[in-house]
Amino acid sequence: MRFPLYPSEAVAPRDRADALQALASHHGRARALAETLTEAQLRRQYHPELSPVGWHLGHCALMEHHWVEERVGEAAPDSALHALYFPELSPKDERATRLPARDALMAWTTGVHERTLSRFADPPGWLNAHPLMADDYLLHFLEQHFAQHHETLLYCLTAITASEPASAPGPDGDGTPYSAPTGPDAIHLAPGRYRVGADHVRAYDNERPSHTVQLEGAWLARRPVTNAQWLAFMAAGGYGDDTCWSNEGAAWRERNRVTYPWNWHPLEGGRFISSGPLGYEPLQPDAPVSGISHYEAEAFARWAGARLPHEFEWEAADRQGLLTDTGRVWEWCSNPLAPYPGFRPFPYDGYSMPWFDGEHPVLRGGCRFTHPGIKRSSFRNFFQRHVRHQQAGLRLAWDTPPSEVKTP
Ligand code: AVJ
Ligand code: FE
């Protein structure tokens, strides 16, 4: 399996030309990725939380067709396509069996991609004049939507690596023995009022409107928790230490027999290797840990005498340039996703509103599979507490200065 992840020069698109180029590049990478898979791999669901790769291709194509041709244009809604590719109409465990054959799927998505690009490259009057096209909003929305699903495709490939080790290339390495964890290296976020959120054309509805919040002040770890620190937690019996776990977290851990992160695989001698979209990778001791649920993140923080940061503490610290190693793993925060004051659902009610249910903690920053175009201080990701495939880790926070604090 070899395919481009993200071009190293990728940046956040600013104007129509940038966004168009980014969208074309998502199209190309997604199709190239699909070409590396067998038809069976393209259609199969490898993980209860993750749809088949082919479904993501179809879903992204339908979003383009729906918004450009059915919502702004006058095409009649295609109810068969909606029933398969709109998540709220399509039970996840039925998607694999309902997907069309590979050739039909690829031909249809390629056709949609070509038409979308030509629509936006030279917008007809009806498209240009539509309110959704103010500041090229619709193009930016569809481009970012595809970028997020491309990230999910990389999670799907990671799941393929894990369940079909024989077809996974990559180092057959013996894992990495762990080094001792380092002590806290924390920054101080002073009490005060801080601006959070964003109002620019690429801001999602849940980032709007920007506003100020009062924070009590906190100490935040300069870096996310590392693999070596996670191994130390495991070696100290952290997974079995119920004093660190919430009741709900302990019940989840027992039900699923969780004793190490999602994409880790045990080798002899208590060592581990991790799986990624391109195959197995040695576990790097100093890299941020990922593949953990919110329950595990909370347990680690309690074990370490710390807590998870609130998303506003993370954003305020990040905007001041105080955090290091952001964007390598999604960082679980303490609070669930909730609307900002004055929230308006946009461009559809279902984008964020269904997830304001108290069951979706926020994650900040982005991971190594996140396109640079959606890595921003104000971006809010969200998943249920048990979800582990999205390359999430954590950064510790404290209400009082931890030992060995270095203030900026
Ligand atoms: C915010 C990443 C959880 O992937 O389901 C994609 C983003 N919303 N299509 C997801 C999203 C609609 C969403 N996450
Ligand atoms: Fe989507």
UniProtKB/TrEMBL annotation:
One Pfam family per UniProt: FGE-sulfatase
Residues covered by the Sulfatase-modifying factor enzyme-like domain: 183-322, 324-398
Pathway entry: Amino-acid biosynthesis; ergothioneine biosynthesis
Record's keyword annotation contains Iron: yes
Keywords, alphabetical: Iron, Oxidoreductase
Domain DinB-like residue range list: 24-152
Superkingdom, natural source: Bacteria
InterPro entries: CTDL_fold, DinB-like, DinB/YfiT-like, Sulfatase_Mod_Factor_Kinase, SUMF_dom, SUMF_sf
Annotated protein name in UniProt: Iron(II)-dependent oxidoreductase
